[in-house]
Amino acid sequence: MRRAFLTLVIPACLWLAGCDLLGIEGATAVAERKAAEGKAVGAACRHAGRAIEDCYTLNKKADKAAIYAGWREMDDYMRENKLEPVAPQLKAEAPKAKAAESEDEPEQTAKVDGEAKGKEARAKKVAGAH
Q1: Whole-prediction pTM value?
Q2: What angle do CA 27, 28, 31 make, to 5 degrees?
Q3: Which comes out higher in pLDDT, residue 9 or 50?
């Protein structure tokens, strides 16, 4: 019985040791991938001429240290090779929350305009009374 158990367990352990082939990533692989993505984002921001603070704001999920490292490497590379930043051709899309605010904006603008006109009318009445 013990031999049968070992005969099944040893091949199972060897098979499971190849989990990388199944697409299961380990913690170190995930950390390395996130760091590489952050560096790529930082380098792209610098190449596009964005400030590092803007890059942080636009990429909240990326690691700030990795973004900075990529931004700094691209900055050094661009200075050494005397490269100019490339202006982005497409505008960054506004987040959905800001899009919802912009839909409400005409109503808020109308309210503000109405309040301003009311204040002007009251000021004229007060000025005319004196």
Answers
A1: 0.53
A2: 85
A3: 50
Give the Cα-Cα-Cα angle 18, 19, 25 (nearest 5 degrees).
Answer: 135
pLDDT digits (tens, 9 = 90+) for 59-89: 999 999 999 999 999 999 999 999 999 887 7
* Mean pLDDT for the chain overall: 75
User: How many C-beta atoms lie closer than 10 Å to residue 58's C-beta?
Assistant: 14
Write the CB contacts of 52 (distance below 8 Å, at least 6 apart in sequence).
Answer: 42, 45, 46, 67, 68, 71
Task: Specify the residue for token string 């202006």.
Answer: 87
User: Within 13 Å and on the Cβ side, how many CA atoms surround 125?
Assistant: 6
Q: How far apart are the first and last CA of the chain?
A: 110
Residue pair 88/48 in contact (Cβ under 8 Å)? The answer is yes
Q: Provide the pLDDT for residue 109.
A: 46
Give me the amino acid identity at 68: Y
Helix count (H) and strand count (E) of the chain?
5, 0
